[in-house]
Inverse folding.
């Protein structure tokens, strides 16, 4: 078995936009962090399986805009989780 873990912290800030006229000259950005955990198991020389879990917490101002501005009208904060299972066969 092989295990791995990873932590990422991210942030970005918009410095130019054609969208400024619609949102009172406001630039947007995002910030957050993410965890990734994975476990891989080789069954034999040809077959292996990997299970990976990802969790992201982020803040994006555009999510909170009303739909008339192209936003989603939802809270700016979000938590997302995903699991993936990959089976691999090498010929």
């Amino acid at each position: 078995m092989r295990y791995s873990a990873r932590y990422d912290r991210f942030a970005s800030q918009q410095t130019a936009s054609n969208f400024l006229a619609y949102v009172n000259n406001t630039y947007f950005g995002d910030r957050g962090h993410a965890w990734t955990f994975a476990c891989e198991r080789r069954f034999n020389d040809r077959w292996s399986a990997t299970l990976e879990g990802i969790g992201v917490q982020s803040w994006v101002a555009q999510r909170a805009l009303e739909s008339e501005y192209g936003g989603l009208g939802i809270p700016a904060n979000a938590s997302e989780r995903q699991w993936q299972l990959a089976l691999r066969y090498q010929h």
